[in-house]
Amino acid sequence: MKKRILILLTLLLFAAGAEAKLVVIGSGNDTRFDPSGFPPDMQKAYKLMEVKCVKCHSLERVAIALQTGIAPITGGLFDRNATRAYGIKMLRKPDSNMTKQDVKIVVPLLNFMLDEVEH
Amino acid sequence: MKAQIILILLTAGLIIPCLSATPARAIPAFARQYKTECKTCHTVFPERNEFGDAFEKNGFIWPGKVHSQPQVKTTLSPAERQKAEAMYNSGLPEQLPVSLLAQHDVTYNSDAQPNFDLDAETELEIFAAGNFRNQVGFWAEYNFEPDKTTGEIYLQLQQPYNLPFNVKLGEFKPKLSIWKANDRPSLSKFGYNGMKVGNNDFEIAGEQGAVELNGVLGSRLFVAAGVTNGPDPKSANNGKDYYGHISVRIGGTDFLGKEPEVDLDHDSVWDYLTLTIGSFGYFGSNADGVNDFYRAGLESETLYKRLRVRVSGIYGRDDDPSGTGVSVDSRFALAQVEYLIGSGLMPSMRFEFQDIDEEGITRRYIPGISYALLQNVRFAVEYLHETTPDETIRETTGRVTFVF
């Protein structure tokens, strides 16, 4: 009986982990996320992120920030406040081609991905 | 033989750390240290953007990072962790923070011989810069060609002992103008930086042995004040020169590198507009106290998206700059407009007006264009049309610059 409970607990742990896991594929400039488990609106937002964000930097930078909670260059916290600040920073970069509408889509996606990691 | 071996070992000691450094897209020390691209701080190098300005004001410490503890990654092996900790405790950067700048000029001037000079000037400069434990910023440079001399060499103690200001000391350019001398996409330096009056060797951007206190008050006010030996330290003059600077930024990234609040639902001109206004004063004495002089300046920079407009006005008075008993007033005005196209093409146009009593009026019209092929490789062409009381100069300069 004890053994069964232990197995169940282990399975539960794995299940929770699998659900929360943000799947990162590849490394370096080829880094991508697997959005198959995202809700439809977030999948749509992810398509935008793949186009807009990689114009200037790889998604590896985003993956590190999301997974560690630390922005890899600044060393600052990467939380919900930071996602908005980064969105504005990218919006104001002269050659980013980001619009306010883009920021309004990508920032909630980053927050969603943060939640995925935190869970 | 022994000397040769020592030389080889020293050379190897210098080169090997560079070779073993983490690959980082062939850009200099700061980019290597922070693993970021040149564009984080520059538009078309060496011109800085708002964040680059904040980084420089913060003593080459990443804004927001103050007195941090070592970031030792848990994935490191025990030996690597020990090394990282030892480096931190010693205050040493993990990578040798050295960069090289090389550039070559060609010129065309129909009044010069040769008209088309493919060997106008070649420059090679090495500089080391960074910070020790996020507490002390440093800068040191040496120009191999053509000057064969050291440039700025200084330390900046970042709010030492929790004082509300930074302490900068060494040989450096006093903080006067809101722009560093090389903070421009154009080739020729801003005329006021090299303007001399009579026999007075003082230049706005001349390096001097100095001590400066500076700091950001709040987040949008920057002040600096310092004392220097003056431009002719070899004289018997025991007097010191004094200077002060104040600048304020309205809108845009503040002096601490923080982005402004932007309403994502409504458009405002302040979403992209940055206005920086600065003023300075320099009070000096040279020629063994015979020539007391001052310079006072008022400057502004307006940045809107890709457009940057700079305006500067400087007034000066020298009691007796040439030992003739005659006082001399000087005036300088500058306006420059530049526009960033794409991510690396920047045309610019500058007008300068210089009026020095006894010498007359000089006007300069300087259109130019810079192109960054890569973030660390730049091509630029500039035309100078200069009219002085004695002559008219028409010269075109082409320059290739690379840094690594």
From TrEMBL, chain A:
**Keywords for the protein's UniProt record, in alphabetical order:** Signal
Keyword Transmembrane recorded: no
Source species: Geothermobacter hydrogeniphilus
Matching SUPFAM superfamilies, A to Z? Cytochrome c (SSF46626)
The name on file for this protein is: Cytochrome C
Q: Name one GO molecular function term.
A: heme binding
Please list which residues make up the signal peptide. Answer: 1-20
**Keyword Signal appears in the UniProt entry:** yes
From TrEMBL, chain B:
Q: What is the lineage of its organism?
A: Bacteria, Pseudomonadati, Thermodesulfobacteriota, Desulfuromonadia, Desulfuromonadales
UniProt keywords (A-Z) are: Signal
Q: Which InterPro entries match?
A: Porin_dom_sf (IPR023614)
Q: What is this protein called?
A: Cytochrome C
Signal peptide start and end residues: 1-26
Report the domain of life of the source organism: Bacteria
